Amino acid sequence: MTESHPPRISKAVIPAAGLGTRFLPATKATPKEMLPVVDKPAIQYVVEEAASAGLDDVLMITGRNKRPLEDHFDRNYELESALLKKGDEARLAKVQESSDLATMHYVRQGDPKGLGHAVLCAAPHVGNEPFAVLLGDDLIDPRDPLLARMVDVQERHGGSVIALMEVAPEQIHLYGCAAVKPTDDSDVVEVTGLVEKPDAADAPSNYAIIGRYVLDPHVFDILRKTEPGRGGEIQLTDALQQLAARYQSAADAEGKVGGPVHGVVFKGRRYDTGDRGDYLRAIVRLACEREDLGPDFQAWLRSYVSEEM
């Protein structure tokens, strides 16, 4: 008899139903995920990250007024025809790139009941397979393949894997926080507990959860029973806390269904587009690193800064 191996993770879920109120009035009629970061909408960076990690089946959790997301990842034959007639192959390739990244699917969240509820909306599509969740406010530099590393850890250990980043203690109240113990891998920890946005005095560590998850499908069973938590929303952190606690306390394999929760400690380049200041800083950093924009833009930036000093 041949040994049975779990299927390679191929599905990614991207919650994109938020209202983007921090960016009003820009997001009154435009989804915040479509705000440009240099010359691509923020959401395209996230889909590119999933595709580069081998996750070519992408489900976007959307809501009202999110139709531009579907249009962006669809073909635009009129525009493509116009560019083709002009012989503008470079722009034609950029337009077609977004529609060729992955097989895209969409489902509406309906009531905005939090991240845990958004993830639960993916259950019919995901089925009984491990899957990834990528939050659009965190852009991970493609030179730092965090998601691919998380997929590797999940395939080796089973269970769920979350992305962690060390932050200053006075910043931990802005994040979900993990209690951890070390493993044999320097960038991997075992998660023994989780708490959503703790006060600094109550935080079990300075390991903050950032917006990347690889989840065991048993998380759906827990989310269905999870009551609204902080902010009156169904928190994904609360469900993962239950998974971690159950695994830590179970005495036998049957009690450990759903597997452990591990964390990958990320020390690479992360661009936070979740608020206006960080969004602007992300644009500047990414523009400075572009070969086609960086040299001229950096020269102007140096001149501007020197004049303002």
Automatic annotation (TrEMBL):
Source species of the chain: Streptomyces longisporoflavus
EC code(s) of this entry: 2.7.7.9
Pfam families in the cross-refs: NTP_transferase
NCBIfam families reported for this sequence: galU
The keyword Transferase belongs to this UniProt entry's keyword annotation: yes
Gene Ontology terms for molecular function: UTP:glucose-1-phosphate uridylyltransferase activity
Enzyme class: transferase
Domain of life of the native organism: Bacteria
CDD domains, per the entry: UGPase_prokaryotic
Family membership: Belongs to the UDPGP type 2 family.
Domain Nucleotidyl transferase: 11-282
Reaction(s) this enzyme catalyzes, per UniProt: alpha-D-glucose 1-phosphate + UTP + H(+) = UDP-alpha-D-glucose + diphosphate
UniProt-recorded name of the protein: UTP--glucose-1-phosphate uridylyltransferase
Keyword field: Nucleotidyltransferase, Transferase
